[in-house]
Amino acid sequence: MTTSQTISHWINNDVFTGSSGQSAPVTNPATGQVTGQVALASVEDAQTVINAAAAAFPAWRDTSITKRVQTLFAFRELLNARRGELAAIITAEHGKVLSDAMGEVARGIEVVEFACGIPHLLKGGYAENASTNVDVYNIRQALGPVAIIAPFNFPAMVPMWFFPIAIAAGNTVVVKPSEKDPSSSLWMAELWKEAGLPDGVFNVLQGDKTAVDELLTNPAIKAVSFVGSTPIAQYVYRTATASGKRVQALGGAKNHAVILPDADLDLAADSMVNAGFGSAGERCMAISACVAVGPIADDLVAKIVERAAAIKTGDGAKGSDMGPLITKVHRDKVASYIDAGEAEGAKVVLDGRNVTVEGAENGFWLGPTLLDNVTPEMSVYTDEIFGPVLSVVRVETYDEALELINNNPYGNGTAIFTNDGGAARRFQNEVEVGMVGINVPIPVPMAFFSFGGWKASLFGDTHAYGPEGVQFFTRAKAVTQRWADPSHGGINLGFPENN
Ligand code: NAD
Protein backbone atom coordinates (compact mmCIF):
# COMPACT_ATOMS: atom_id res chain seq x y z
CA MET A 1 0.00 0.00 0.00
CA THR A 2 1.09 3.56 -0.61
CA THR A 3 0.17 6.78 1.12
CA SER A 4 -1.88 7.67 -1.92
CA GLN A 5 -4.11 4.60 -1.68
CA THR A 6 -7.71 5.66 -1.27
CA ILE A 7 -10.01 3.48 0.76
CA SER A 8 -13.50 4.18 -0.55
CA HIS A 9 -17.10 3.23 -0.02
CA TRP A 10 -18.71 0.25 -1.75
CA ILE A 11 -22.14 0.10 -3.36
CA ASN A 12 -23.75 -2.07 -6.03
CA ASN A 13 -20.72 -4.37 -6.03
CA ASP A 14 -18.38 -1.57 -6.97
CA VAL A 15 -16.17 1.10 -5.45
CA PHE A 16 -17.92 4.38 -4.74
CA THR A 17 -15.58 7.29 -4.14
CA GLY A 18 -18.21 9.69 -2.79
CA SER A 19 -18.17 13.43 -3.21
CA SER A 20 -17.26 14.75 0.23
CA GLY A 21 -13.62 15.37 -0.63
CA GLN A 22 -12.85 14.52 3.01
CA SER A 23 -10.51 11.75 4.10
CA ALA A 24 -8.49 10.58 7.10
CA PRO A 25 -5.10 8.88 7.21
CA VAL A 26 -4.84 5.15 7.92
CA THR A 27 -1.65 4.12 9.67
CA ASN A 28 0.29 0.90 10.15
CA PRO A 29 0.74 1.01 13.96
CA ALA A 30 3.87 -1.12 13.80
CA THR A 31 5.73 1.37 11.61
CA GLY A 32 3.87 4.62 12.25
CA GLN A 33 3.59 5.06 8.49
CA VAL A 34 0.49 6.32 6.78
CA THR A 35 -0.61 3.57 4.38
CA GLY A 36 -3.80 4.99 2.95
CA GLN A 37 -6.50 7.62 3.08
CA VAL A 38 -10.00 6.56 4.03
CA ALA A 39 -12.93 8.48 2.60
CA LEU A 40 -15.09 10.27 5.17
CA ALA A 41 -18.66 10.32 3.93
CA SER A 42 -20.78 13.43 3.72
CA VAL A 43 -24.49 13.14 4.48
CA GLU A 44 -25.13 12.88 0.72
CA ASP A 45 -22.57 10.07 0.36
CA ALA A 46 -24.21 8.22 3.26
CA GLN A 47 -27.61 8.64 1.65
CA THR A 48 -26.30 7.27 -1.65
CA VAL A 49 -25.05 4.15 0.12
CA ILE A 50 -28.26 3.73 2.13
CA ASN A 51 -30.34 4.19 -1.03
CA ALA A 52 -28.39 1.39 -2.73
CA ALA A 53 -29.18 -0.92 0.18
CA ALA A 54 -32.84 0.13 0.13
CA ALA A 55 -33.17 -0.42 -3.62
CA ALA A 56 -31.71 -3.92 -3.39
CA PHE A 57 -33.92 -5.02 -0.48
CA PRO A 58 -37.17 -6.15 -2.17
CA ALA A 59 -35.45 -8.47 -4.65
CA TRP A 60 -33.10 -9.94 -2.03
CA ARG A 61 -35.94 -10.47 0.46
CA ASP A 62 -37.85 -12.33 -2.26
CA THR A 63 -34.86 -14.44 -3.33
CA SER A 64 -35.50 -17.99 -2.15
CA ILE A 65 -33.86 -19.09 1.06
CA THR A 66 -32.10 -21.83 -0.88
CA LYS A 67 -30.50 -19.37 -3.29
CA ARG A 68 -29.54 -16.99 -0.50
CA VAL A 69 -27.86 -19.81 1.36
CA GLN A 70 -26.01 -20.99 -1.74
CA THR A 71 -24.42 -17.53 -1.93
CA LEU A 72 -23.51 -17.77 1.72
CA PHE A 73 -21.84 -21.14 1.20
CA ALA A 74 -19.88 -19.67 -1.73
CA PHE A 75 -18.78 -16.75 0.48
CA ARG A 76 -17.73 -19.19 3.20
CA GLU A 77 -15.65 -21.24 0.77
CA LEU A 78 -13.85 -18.17 -0.59
CA LEU A 79 -13.24 -16.77 2.87
CA ASN A 80 -11.94 -20.06 4.14
CA ALA A 81 -9.55 -20.43 1.21
CA ARG A 82 -8.28 -16.86 1.41
CA ARG A 83 -8.39 -16.22 5.15
CA GLY A 84 -4.66 -15.44 5.19
CA GLU A 85 -5.15 -12.39 2.96
CA LEU A 86 -7.73 -10.95 5.31
CA ALA A 87 -5.55 -11.64 8.35
CA ALA A 88 -2.67 -9.78 6.71
CA ILE A 89 -4.89 -6.74 6.13
CA ILE A 90 -5.99 -6.81 9.77
CA THR A 91 -2.39 -6.96 11.00
CA ALA A 92 -1.30 -4.15 8.69
CA GLU A 93 -3.98 -1.74 9.90
CA HIS A 94 -4.74 -2.89 13.45
CA GLY A 95 -1.34 -4.17 14.51
CA LYS A 96 -2.39 -7.45 16.18
CA VAL A 97 -0.07 -10.35 15.42
CA LEU A 98 -0.88 -12.55 12.44
CA SER A 99 -1.83 -15.63 14.47
CA ASP A 100 -4.29 -13.49 16.42
CA ALA A 101 -5.67 -12.01 13.20
CA MET A 102 -6.12 -15.56 11.87
CA GLY A 103 -8.06 -16.37 15.05
CA GLU A 104 -10.25 -13.31 14.49
CA VAL A 105 -11.06 -14.45 10.96
CA ALA A 106 -11.73 -18.01 12.17
CA ARG A 107 -14.27 -16.78 14.72
CA GLY A 108 -15.94 -14.71 12.00
CA ILE A 109 -16.13 -17.71 9.68
CA GLU A 110 -17.93 -19.61 12.44
CA VAL A 111 -20.78 -17.10 12.21
CA VAL A 112 -20.90 -17.47 8.41
CA GLU A 113 -21.16 -21.23 8.93
CA PHE A 114 -23.91 -20.74 11.47
CA ALA A 115 -25.78 -18.50 9.02
CA CYS A 116 -25.54 -21.24 6.36
CA GLY A 117 -28.05 -23.09 8.56
CA ILE A 118 -30.59 -20.28 8.37
CA PRO A 119 -33.28 -22.32 6.57
CA HIS A 120 -33.83 -24.32 9.71
CA LEU A 121 -33.76 -21.18 11.86
CA LEU A 122 -36.29 -19.27 9.78
CA LYS A 123 -38.87 -22.04 9.92
CA GLY A 124 -41.88 -20.97 11.91
CA GLY A 125 -44.39 -23.04 13.81
CA TYR A 126 -47.71 -24.30 12.48
CA ALA A 127 -50.77 -25.36 14.45
CA GLU A 128 -53.43 -27.12 12.39
CA ASN A 129 -56.97 -26.73 13.73
CA ALA A 130 -55.83 -24.24 16.36
CA SER A 131 -59.52 -23.43 16.39
CA THR A 132 -62.09 -25.46 14.47
CA ASN A 133 -61.06 -25.40 10.80
CA VAL A 134 -58.66 -22.57 11.59
CA ASP A 135 -54.88 -22.93 11.30
CA VAL A 136 -52.32 -20.59 12.86
CA TYR A 137 -48.72 -20.26 11.80
CA ASN A 138 -45.94 -17.80 12.24
CA ILE A 139 -43.19 -16.68 9.92
CA ARG A 140 -40.09 -14.55 10.42
CA GLN A 141 -39.44 -11.86 7.84
CA ALA A 142 -36.47 -9.66 7.03
CA LEU A 143 -36.46 -6.09 8.34
CA GLY A 144 -34.99 -4.13 5.40
CA PRO A 145 -31.65 -2.36 5.12
CA VAL A 146 -29.70 -2.66 8.38
CA ALA A 147 -26.62 -0.81 9.63
CA ILE A 148 -23.59 -2.43 11.24
CA ILE A 149 -21.21 0.01 12.95
CA ALA A 150 -17.90 -1.53 13.96
CA PRO A 151 -15.03 -0.70 16.34
CA PHE A 152 -11.36 -0.74 15.41
CA ASN A 153 -10.37 -3.73 17.49
CA PHE A 154 -12.02 -6.48 15.41
CA PRO A 155 -12.31 -5.01 11.92
CA ALA A 156 -13.33 -8.35 10.34
CA MET A 157 -14.90 -10.41 13.11
CA VAL A 158 -17.28 -7.82 14.52
CA PRO A 159 -18.92 -7.07 11.15
CA MET A 160 -19.10 -10.85 10.71
CA TRP A 161 -20.96 -11.17 14.00
CA PHE A 162 -23.86 -9.54 12.20
CA PHE A 163 -23.84 -9.44 8.40
CA PRO A 164 -23.91 -13.20 7.65
CA ILE A 165 -27.14 -13.62 9.62
CA ALA A 166 -28.62 -10.33 8.40
CA ILE A 167 -27.98 -11.24 4.76
CA ALA A 168 -29.04 -14.87 5.12
CA ALA A 169 -32.32 -13.69 6.62
CA GLY A 170 -33.02 -11.50 3.59
CA ASN A 171 -31.89 -8.06 4.79
CA THR A 172 -29.51 -5.77 2.96
CA VAL A 173 -26.57 -4.33 4.84
CA VAL A 174 -24.54 -1.15 5.26
CA VAL A 175 -21.29 -1.74 7.17
CA LYS A 176 -19.63 1.32 8.70
CA PRO A 177 -16.09 0.21 9.63
CA SER A 178 -13.84 2.03 12.05
CA GLU A 179 -11.95 4.75 10.21
CA LYS A 180 -8.76 3.41 11.85
CA ASP A 181 -8.80 0.09 9.98
CA PRO A 182 -11.33 0.32 7.15
CA SER A 183 -9.86 -2.05 4.53
CA SER A 184 -11.10 -5.41 5.87
CA SER A 185 -14.73 -4.57 5.11
CA LEU A 186 -13.86 -3.57 1.56
CA TRP A 187 -11.98 -6.81 1.05
CA MET A 188 -15.00 -8.75 2.29
CA ALA A 189 -17.22 -6.72 -0.07
CA GLU A 190 -15.15 -7.89 -3.03
CA LEU A 191 -15.42 -11.44 -1.78
CA TRP A 192 -19.22 -11.18 -1.62
CA LYS A 193 -19.20 -10.00 -5.21
CA GLU A 194 -17.12 -13.00 -6.19
CA ALA A 195 -19.51 -15.24 -4.29
CA GLY A 196 -22.35 -13.96 -6.48
CA LEU A 197 -24.19 -11.69 -4.06
CA PRO A 198 -26.46 -9.35 -6.06
CA ASP A 199 -25.69 -5.63 -6.29
CA GLY A 200 -26.63 -3.53 -3.29
CA VAL A 201 -27.01 -6.32 -0.72
CA PHE A 202 -23.66 -5.70 0.99
CA ASN A 203 -22.48 -2.09 1.10
CA VAL A 204 -19.69 -0.29 2.91
CA LEU A 205 -19.94 3.28 4.15
CA GLN A 206 -16.64 4.79 5.28
CA GLY A 207 -16.59 7.70 7.65
CA ASP A 208 -16.98 9.16 11.10
CA LYS A 209 -19.79 10.70 13.14
CA THR A 210 -21.42 12.22 10.05
CA ALA A 211 -21.83 8.77 8.48
CA VAL A 212 -22.98 7.22 11.76
CA ASP A 213 -25.55 9.94 12.44
CA GLU A 214 -27.14 9.46 9.03
CA LEU A 215 -27.39 5.71 9.65
CA LEU A 216 -29.01 6.34 13.04
CA THR A 217 -31.67 8.69 11.71
CA ASN A 218 -32.32 7.80 8.06
CA PRO A 219 -35.82 6.26 7.86
CA ALA A 220 -34.69 3.62 5.35
CA ILE A 221 -32.46 1.93 7.95
CA LYS A 222 -34.54 -0.46 10.03
CA ALA A 223 -32.04 -1.77 12.55
CA VAL A 224 -28.63 -0.88 13.95
CA SER A 225 -26.02 -3.25 15.35
CA PHE A 226 -23.30 -1.20 17.00
CA VAL A 227 -20.11 -2.26 18.77
CA GLY A 228 -17.76 0.25 20.39
CA SER A 229 -17.16 2.22 23.56
CA THR A 230 -19.90 2.68 26.15
CA PRO A 231 -20.49 6.44 25.71
CA ILE A 232 -20.94 6.02 21.93
CA ALA A 233 -23.03 2.87 22.43
CA GLN A 234 -25.37 4.85 24.69
CA TYR A 235 -25.58 7.65 22.16
CA VAL A 236 -26.26 5.21 19.33
CA TYR A 237 -28.94 3.42 21.35
CA ARG A 238 -30.70 6.65 22.34
CA THR A 239 -30.55 8.24 18.89
CA ALA A 240 -31.52 5.22 16.81
CA THR A 241 -34.32 4.03 19.09
CA ALA A 242 -35.71 7.59 19.06
CA SER A 243 -35.81 7.20 15.27
CA GLY A 244 -37.90 4.05 15.71
CA LYS A 245 -35.19 1.54 14.91
CA ARG A 246 -34.39 -1.78 16.45
CA VAL A 247 -30.99 -1.40 18.16
CA GLN A 248 -28.36 -3.56 19.81
CA ALA A 249 -25.43 -1.44 21.00
CA LEU A 250 -22.53 -3.31 22.56
CA GLY A 251 -20.26 -1.17 24.72
CA GLY A 252 -17.02 -1.27 26.68
CA ALA A 253 -15.84 -3.58 29.40
CA LYS A 254 -13.77 -4.06 32.53
CA ASN A 255 -13.37 -7.80 32.84
CA HIS A 256 -12.32 -9.47 36.10
CA ALA A 257 -10.86 -12.90 36.64
CA VAL A 258 -11.15 -14.36 40.13
CA ILE A 259 -8.37 -16.73 41.19
CA LEU A 260 -9.47 -18.82 44.17
CA PRO A 261 -6.83 -20.30 46.49
CA ASP A 262 -7.44 -23.84 45.20
CA ALA A 263 -6.94 -22.93 41.53
CA ASP A 264 -4.29 -24.44 39.30
CA LEU A 265 -1.95 -21.44 39.47
CA ASP A 266 -0.03 -22.36 36.33
CA LEU A 267 -3.25 -22.50 34.33
CA ALA A 268 -4.37 -19.24 35.93
CA ALA A 269 -1.06 -17.48 35.20
CA ASP A 270 -1.03 -18.67 31.57
CA SER A 271 -4.61 -17.52 31.23
CA MET A 272 -3.94 -14.08 32.76
CA VAL A 273 -1.09 -13.52 30.32
CA ASN A 274 -3.11 -14.67 27.30
CA ALA A 275 -6.24 -12.74 28.25
CA GLY A 276 -4.43 -9.67 29.57
CA PHE A 277 -1.88 -9.14 26.83
CA GLY A 278 -3.34 -10.87 23.75
CA SER A 279 -4.04 -8.27 21.05
CA ALA A 280 -2.17 -5.83 23.34
CA GLY A 281 -5.20 -5.81 25.63
CA GLU A 282 -7.35 -4.26 22.90
CA ARG A 283 -10.16 -6.81 23.26
CA CYS A 284 -13.52 -6.20 24.83
CA MET A 285 -13.11 -9.61 26.47
CA ALA A 286 -9.56 -8.94 27.70
CA ILE A 287 -9.00 -9.53 31.41
CA SER A 288 -7.83 -6.29 32.96
CA ALA A 289 -8.42 -7.00 36.65
CA CYS A 290 -7.02 -10.16 38.19
CA VAL A 291 -8.62 -10.65 41.59
CA ALA A 292 -6.33 -12.82 43.73
CA VAL A 293 -8.21 -14.37 46.64
CA GLY A 294 -6.39 -15.22 49.90
CA PRO A 295 -2.82 -16.40 50.27
CA ILE A 296 -1.97 -17.22 46.64
CA ALA A 297 -1.38 -13.64 45.48
CA ASP A 298 2.43 -13.58 45.80
CA ASP A 299 2.84 -16.90 43.98
CA LEU A 300 0.39 -15.89 41.28
CA VAL A 301 2.07 -12.53 40.66
CA ALA A 302 5.46 -14.25 40.39
CA LYS A 303 4.13 -16.73 37.85
CA ILE A 304 2.47 -14.02 35.75
CA VAL A 305 5.61 -11.86 35.73
CA GLU A 306 7.81 -14.77 34.72
CA ARG A 307 5.57 -15.45 31.72
CA ALA A 308 4.78 -11.86 30.75
CA ALA A 309 8.43 -10.82 30.83
CA ALA A 310 9.15 -13.34 28.07
CA ILE A 311 6.60 -11.81 25.66
CA LYS A 312 8.21 -10.42 22.54
CA THR A 313 6.63 -7.11 21.56
CA GLY A 314 7.03 -6.17 17.90
CA ASP A 315 5.61 -6.07 14.40
CA GLY A 316 2.72 -8.52 14.22
CA ALA A 317 3.70 -9.49 10.68
CA LYS A 318 7.19 -10.53 11.83
CA GLY A 319 6.65 -13.31 14.34
CA SER A 320 6.18 -11.27 17.51
CA ASP A 321 3.95 -12.29 20.41
CA MET A 322 2.30 -8.92 20.92
CA GLY A 323 1.86 -6.02 18.51
CA PRO A 324 1.58 -2.26 18.95
CA LEU A 325 -1.38 -0.19 20.11
CA ILE A 326 -3.70 1.28 17.53
CA THR A 327 -2.51 4.92 17.57
CA LYS A 328 0.17 7.04 19.20
CA VAL A 329 -2.51 8.96 21.09
CA HIS A 330 -3.97 5.74 22.49
CA ARG A 331 -0.52 4.41 23.37
CA ASP A 332 0.23 7.56 25.35
CA LYS A 333 -3.13 7.46 27.08
CA VAL A 334 -2.55 3.88 28.22
CA ALA A 335 0.94 4.84 29.46
CA SER A 336 -0.60 7.72 31.41
CA TYR A 337 -2.86 5.24 33.24
CA ILE A 338 0.24 3.36 34.35
CA ASP A 339 1.74 6.66 35.56
CA ALA A 340 -1.44 7.42 37.47
CA GLY A 341 -1.60 3.94 39.01
CA GLU A 342 1.99 4.23 40.17
CA ALA A 343 1.36 7.69 41.62
CA GLU A 344 -1.69 6.39 43.47
CA GLY A 345 0.30 3.61 45.12
CA ALA A 346 0.09 0.59 42.81
CA LYS A 347 3.30 -1.42 42.49
CA VAL A 348 4.64 -1.62 38.93
CA VAL A 349 5.88 -5.20 38.85
CA LEU A 350 6.47 -5.27 35.11
CA ASP A 351 6.79 -1.99 33.23
CA GLY A 352 6.04 -1.80 29.50
CA ARG A 353 6.45 1.96 29.19
CA ASN A 354 9.99 1.95 27.91
CA VAL A 355 9.76 -0.95 25.50
CA THR A 356 11.31 -0.20 22.12
CA VAL A 357 11.45 -2.30 18.98
CA GLU A 358 14.64 -2.26 17.00
CA GLY A 359 14.19 -1.03 13.46
CA ALA A 360 10.63 0.14 14.16
CA GLU A 361 11.18 3.08 16.45
CA ASN A 362 8.07 4.88 15.20
CA GLY A 363 5.67 2.07 16.10
CA PHE A 364 3.15 2.62 18.89
CA TRP A 365 4.79 0.28 21.39
CA LEU A 366 3.86 -0.45 24.95
CA GLY A 367 5.04 -3.68 26.52
CA PRO A 368 3.10 -5.94 28.90
CA THR A 369 2.59 -4.19 32.21
CA LEU A 370 1.64 -5.76 35.52
CA LEU A 371 0.44 -3.64 38.44
CA ASP A 372 0.07 -5.16 41.90
CA ASN A 373 -1.81 -3.88 44.95
CA VAL A 374 -4.33 -2.05 42.80
CA THR A 375 -7.33 -0.77 44.72
CA PRO A 376 -10.84 0.00 43.47
CA GLU A 377 -10.45 3.81 43.70
CA MET A 378 -7.50 3.97 41.30
CA SER A 379 -8.24 5.14 37.75
CA VAL A 380 -6.32 2.14 36.45
CA TYR A 381 -9.09 0.06 38.04
CA THR A 382 -12.16 2.21 37.41
CA ASP A 383 -11.55 2.95 33.72
CA GLU A 384 -11.48 0.73 30.67
CA ILE A 385 -7.81 1.11 29.66
CA PHE A 386 -7.83 -1.03 26.50
CA GLY A 387 -4.12 -1.75 26.57
CA PRO A 388 -1.65 -4.38 27.84
CA VAL A 389 -2.05 -3.46 31.50
CA LEU A 390 -3.09 -6.13 33.98
CA SER A 391 -4.02 -5.02 37.48
CA VAL A 392 -3.84 -7.39 40.42
CA VAL A 393 -6.39 -6.64 43.13
CA ARG A 394 -5.87 -8.59 46.34
CA VAL A 395 -8.90 -9.64 48.41
CA GLU A 396 -9.39 -12.06 51.28
CA THR A 397 -12.61 -13.84 50.34
CA TYR A 398 -14.77 -15.03 47.45
CA ASP A 399 -17.52 -12.67 48.66
CA GLU A 400 -15.23 -9.64 48.35
CA ALA A 401 -14.27 -10.71 44.83
CA LEU A 402 -17.90 -11.14 43.84
CA GLU A 403 -18.85 -7.78 45.31
CA LEU A 404 -16.12 -6.05 43.30
CA ILE A 405 -17.42 -7.51 40.05
CA ASN A 406 -21.07 -6.90 40.78
CA ASN A 407 -20.40 -3.29 41.78
CA ASN A 408 -18.63 -2.63 38.50
CA PRO A 409 -20.71 -0.69 35.97
CA TYR A 410 -19.63 -3.02 33.15
CA GLY A 411 -20.70 -6.64 32.77
CA ASN A 412 -19.20 -8.04 29.60
CA GLY A 413 -17.08 -11.07 30.52
CA THR A 414 -15.60 -12.62 33.64
CA ALA A 415 -13.82 -15.79 34.67
CA ILE A 416 -13.21 -17.84 37.78
CA PHE A 417 -10.28 -20.18 38.30
CA THR A 418 -10.88 -22.93 40.81
CA ASN A 419 -10.98 -26.69 41.29
CA ASP A 420 -14.10 -26.41 43.43
CA GLY A 421 -17.18 -27.18 41.34
CA GLY A 422 -19.46 -25.82 44.03
CA ALA A 423 -17.66 -22.47 44.07
CA ALA A 424 -17.73 -22.28 40.29
CA ARG A 425 -21.43 -23.07 40.22
CA ARG A 426 -22.12 -20.45 42.85
CA PHE A 427 -20.14 -17.89 40.85
CA GLN A 428 -21.99 -18.65 37.62
CA ASN A 429 -25.23 -18.13 39.49
CA GLU A 430 -24.34 -15.00 41.44
CA VAL A 431 -22.16 -12.95 39.10
CA GLU A 432 -23.86 -10.09 37.21
CA VAL A 433 -22.01 -10.48 33.95
CA GLY A 434 -23.26 -11.70 30.56
CA MET A 435 -20.47 -14.15 29.69
CA VAL A 436 -18.76 -16.33 32.29
CA GLY A 437 -15.69 -18.53 32.00
CA ILE A 438 -14.94 -21.35 34.40
CA ASN A 439 -11.20 -22.00 34.09
CA VAL A 440 -11.59 -20.29 30.68
CA PRO A 441 -10.28 -16.72 30.54
CA ILE A 442 -11.97 -15.39 27.38
CA PRO A 443 -15.40 -16.97 27.28
CA VAL A 444 -16.53 -15.76 23.86
CA PRO A 445 -19.51 -17.98 23.06
CA MET A 446 -19.50 -20.15 19.95
CA ALA A 447 -21.50 -18.92 16.96
CA PHE A 448 -24.48 -21.13 17.80
CA PHE A 449 -24.87 -19.42 21.17
CA SER A 450 -25.10 -15.62 21.40
CA PHE A 451 -22.61 -12.96 22.51
CA GLY A 452 -23.50 -10.14 24.84
CA GLY A 453 -22.63 -8.41 28.06
CA TRP A 454 -24.85 -6.95 30.77
CA LYS A 455 -25.15 -3.49 32.30
CA ALA A 456 -23.05 -0.79 30.56
CA SER A 457 -21.62 -3.39 28.17
CA LEU A 458 -24.81 -3.73 26.10
CA PHE A 459 -27.79 -1.49 25.41
CA GLY A 460 -30.76 -3.29 23.93
CA ASP A 461 -32.45 -6.61 24.58
CA THR A 462 -30.79 -8.89 22.08
CA HIS A 463 -27.30 -10.31 22.09
CA ALA A 464 -25.17 -10.65 18.96
CA TYR A 465 -25.16 -13.64 16.58
CA GLY A 466 -26.50 -17.12 17.32
CA PRO A 467 -30.24 -17.56 17.87
CA GLU A 468 -30.59 -14.02 19.25
CA GLY A 469 -28.97 -12.68 16.08
CA VAL A 470 -31.64 -14.42 14.00
CA GLN A 471 -34.27 -12.91 16.24
CA PHE A 472 -32.73 -9.45 15.90
CA PHE A 473 -32.57 -9.48 12.11
CA THR A 474 -36.10 -10.81 11.57
CA ARG A 475 -39.54 -9.89 12.79
CA ALA A 476 -42.33 -12.26 13.57
CA LYS A 477 -45.65 -12.41 11.79
CA ALA A 478 -48.50 -14.66 12.91
CA VAL A 479 -51.09 -15.75 10.35
CA THR A 480 -54.53 -17.14 11.17
CA GLN A 481 -56.30 -18.80 8.24
CA ARG A 482 -59.63 -20.39 7.43
CA TRP A 483 -60.57 -21.93 4.07
CA ALA A 484 -63.96 -22.96 2.73
CA ASP A 485 -65.46 -23.45 6.16
CA PRO A 486 -69.25 -23.66 6.17
CA SER A 487 -69.30 -23.54 10.00
CA HIS A 488 -67.82 -20.06 10.26
CA GLY A 489 -70.76 -18.87 12.34
CA GLY A 490 -72.21 -16.09 10.19
CA ILE A 491 -72.63 -12.57 11.54
CA ASN A 492 -71.28 -12.18 15.09
CA LEU A 493 -69.92 -8.86 16.37
CA GLY A 494 -68.43 -10.42 19.50
CA PHE A 495 -64.66 -10.76 19.88
CA PRO A 496 -63.62 -13.99 18.13
CA GLU A 497 -63.33 -16.88 20.58
CA ASN A 498 -61.59 -20.08 19.71
CA ASN A 499 -63.51 -23.30 19.86
P1 NAD B 1 -15.54 3.84 19.43
O1 NAD B 1 -16.75 3.91 20.28
O2 NAD B 1 -14.59 4.98 19.47
O3 NAD B 1 -15.94 3.67 17.87
C1 NAD B 1 -16.84 2.67 17.46
C2 NAD B 1 -17.53 3.16 16.18
O4 NAD B 1 -18.28 4.34 16.48
C3 NAD B 1 -16.56 3.51 15.05
O5 NAD B 1 -17.08 3.03 13.84
C4 NAD B 1 -16.51 5.03 15.10
O6 NAD B 1 -16.30 5.59 13.82
C5 NAD B 1 -17.88 5.41 15.61
N1 NAD B 1 -17.86 6.64 16.42
C6 NAD B 1 -16.85 7.09 17.19
N2 NAD B 1 -17.19 8.25 17.79
C7 NAD B 1 -18.46 8.54 17.38
C8 NAD B 1 -19.37 9.60 17.66
N3 NAD B 1 -19.05 10.60 18.48
N4 NAD B 1 -20.57 9.57 17.07
C9 NAD B 1 -20.93 8.57 16.24
N5 NAD B 1 -20.10 7.54 15.95
C10 NAD B 1 -18.88 7.50 16.52
O7 NAD B 1 -14.81 2.47 19.81
P2 NAD B 1 -13.38 1.96 19.32
O8 NAD B 1 -12.33 2.73 20.01
O9 NAD B 1 -13.35 1.83 17.86
O10 NAD B 1 -13.41 0.46 19.90
C11 NAD B 1 -13.02 0.13 21.20
C12 NAD B 1 -14.20 0.02 22.12
O11 NAD B 1 -15.11 -0.96 21.62
C13 NAD B 1 -13.83 -0.45 23.51
O12 NAD B 1 -14.57 0.29 24.44
C14 NAD B 1 -14.26 -1.91 23.52
O13 NAD B 1 -14.55 -2.45 24.79
C15 NAD B 1 -15.47 -1.84 22.67
N6 NAD B 1 -15.80 -3.15 22.13
C16 NAD B 1 -16.85 -3.81 22.68
C17 NAD B 1 -17.18 -5.07 22.23
C18 NAD B 1 -18.32 -5.81 22.82
O14 NAD B 1 -18.65 -6.85 22.31
N7 NAD B 1 -18.97 -5.33 23.89
C19 NAD B 1 -16.43 -5.65 21.20
C20 NAD B 1 -15.37 -4.94 20.64
C21 NAD B 1 -15.06 -3.68 21.13
TrEMBL record:
Matches recorded under CDD domains: ALDH_F6_MMSDH
Coiled-coil spans in chain: none
Keyword Oxidoreductase among UniProt keywords: yes
Presence of the UniProt keyword Oxidoreductase in the record: yes
Entry's Gene Ontology BP terms: L-valine catabolic process; thymine catabolic process
InterPro entries: Ald_DH/histidinol_DH, Ald_DH_C, Ald_DH_CS_CYS, Ald_DH_N, Aldehyde_DH_dom, MeMal-semiAld_DH
Keywords assigned by UniProt, alphabetized: NAD, Oxidoreductase
Class of enzymatic activity (EC top level): oxidoreductase
Ranges of residues in domain Aldehyde dehydrogenase: 19-479
GO molecular function: methylmalonate-semialdehyde dehydrogenase (acylating, NAD) activity
Pfam families documented for this protein: Aldedh (PF00171)
Gene3D superfamilies membership: Aldehyde Dehydrogenase, Chain A, domain 1 (3.40.605.10), Aldehyde Dehydrogenase, Chain A, domain 2 (3.40.309.10)
Known EC number: 1.2.1.27
Official protein name in the record: methylmalonate-semialdehyde dehydrogenase (CoA acylating)
Species for this entry: Mycolicibacterium mucogenicum
